[in-house]
Design a protein that fits this description.
single chain, alpha/beta, Isopropylmalate Dehydrogenase, 2 domains, ten-stranded mixed β-sheet, 40% helix, globular, binds 3-isopropylmalic acid, binds manganese (II) ion
Length: 369
């Protein structure tokens, strides 16, 4: 008897619905060709949820996300909601999901597929073969620290955000990074601003202690300031294996790393919680790209980042590494075959729509299976 996994699909805004349509087709292919079933349900998040219910994430949807084996998210946001109060903005729905599901470890791989190396704005030899994993802390730091907001101070208006980390918050994300490095090239860069920030000094100390006392002597640990890391990412990105960093630096550095690979439209991500007694963790998978309102509804978005996020779901939530490999290899084959969506278009290649990219990928999966 085959196992049934509950997937909650939150397509969200902009190009989210278009790319998630292709993810659904890939999931259907896996269900048809492998011994697994997916019970897929749709829900609203972001601006779409705000338009329907006046909130970017309602309690029913949150409960469904909590109960699902995995959540697959498209994208949230767009200029349509620019004037909405911050607590109802589309982004607030995503932040609430991360926080409420306690998805503290955000895995953002930046790999440069050979077929796209020349599409990078960096020289081909700098990026070709690149394979970095950024582990971004996702539920603490300045995104959630208190106090925050406007105050009056010495008769002046001022505004505050707070960077805050507990020891446990740093330890649990560090552990994820070390464990990932162990399956890769055994090198971790821990990134902060210990030269300026108290929380940076603390971060560095906690990571060092974990390294020394946590049984990670087989892993090489390097500390790096965040500004230097940004510079090193464009200077010589292949020096990195795993980078672990806080919420805000992780947001910035992962966009930077993403661009090394030729297109933001290619990069998947996984957001994972702690494992429960049965070894299962809450999880949400989403592309790193945003909702791209400028091209939404035109059938030209690249669905590969969302599809590769689903591959991460198979790998990390369902222990289906072989099927994840299959999807990743199929994506490579499609690109090697010269098929491109507009965002990764190169001279002499065939420009296709979102759905034709989906068709091409499924065809390669058939061939490889
Ligand atoms: C990301 C996005 C989000 C973030 C926004 C949409 C809130 O930029 O996932 O990187 O800042 O975390
Ligand atoms: Mn971001």
């Amino acid at each position: 008897m085959s196992d049934t996994k509950k997937l909650l699909i939150l397509a969200g805004d902009g190009i989210g619905p278009e790319v998630m349509t292709e993810v659904r087709r890939v999931a259907e292919w896996i269900a048809k060709n492998r011994t697994i079933n997916f019970d897929m349900e749709d829900g609203l998040v972001g601006g779409a949820a705000y338009d329907a219910h006046g909130t970017a994430l309602d309690d029913t949807t949150l409960q469904k996300a909590m109960d699902a084996d995995a959540v697959l998210l498209g994208a949230v946001g767009g200029p349509k909601w620019d004037d909405v109060a911050r607590e109802h903005r589309p982004e607030a729905g995503l932040l609430a999901l991360r926080k409420e599901m306690d998805l503290f470890a955000n895995l953002r791989p930046a790999t440069c597929l050979p077929a796209l190396a020349e599409a990078s704005t960096l020289r081909e030899e700098v990026v070709s073969g690149l394979d970095i994993m950024i582990v971004r802390e996702l539920t603490a730091g300045v995104y959630f620290g208190q106090p925050r907001g406007m105050q009056t101070y010495e008769g002046q208006e001022r505004c505050i955000d707070t960077q805050s980390y507990t020891k446990a918050e740093i330890e649990r994300v560090t552990e994820v990074a070390f464990d990932l490095a162990r399956k890769r090239n055994k090198l971790v860069h821990s990134v902060e601003k210990a030269n300026v920030m108290e929380s940076g000094i603390f971060w560095r100390g906690v990571v060092s202690d974990m390294h020394k006392n946590g049984g990670y002597s087989d892993i090489e640990l390097q500390h790096m300031y965040a500004d230097n890391c940004a510079m090193q990412l464009v200077r010589n990105p292949k020096q990195f294996d795993v980078i672990v960093t806080d919420n805000l630096f992780g947001d910035i550095l992962s966009d930077c790393a993403a661009m090394l690979t030729g297109s933001l439209g290619m990069l998947p991500s996984a957001s994972l919680g702690a494992k429960d007694a049965n070894g299962k963790a809450k999880a949400l998978y989403e592309p790193v790209h945003g909702s791209a309102p400028d091209i939404a509804g035109q059938g030209m978005a690249n669905p590969l980042a969302s599809i590769l996020s689903f591959a991460m779901c198979l790998r990390y939530s369902f222990d289906m590494g072989a099927e994840a490999d299959l999807i990743e290899n199929a994506a490579q084959a499609v690109l090697n075959g010269g098929i491109r969506t507009a965002d990764i278009m190169q001279k002499g290649k065939a420009k296709v729509s979102t759905s034709v990219m989906g068709d091409s990928l499924l065809r390669e999966m058939d061939k490889l299976a």
